[in-house]
Amino acid sequence: MNDPKPLRNDALCLEALRRMTPSQRRAKALELVELSRKLLKAGQRRQFPRHSEAELHAVYLKRLAAARDDVRG
What we know:
The chain is mainly alpha-helical. It is built from 3 helices and no strands.
């Protein structure tokens, strides 16, 4: 798979990150993790509209484990 061509926004984002303190970068990373979690859960609710919250949570945990396994190889 080829990486997409870097966009001007990529450079702007990197520049903004470089200006942040380590504490600010850590806070931004946690914010992005939370956003990713919310997007994943929203997608699951659309994909499985009849699932209970417990069933959705089980799917969420399964997908997190699969993603972790993919990263670890």
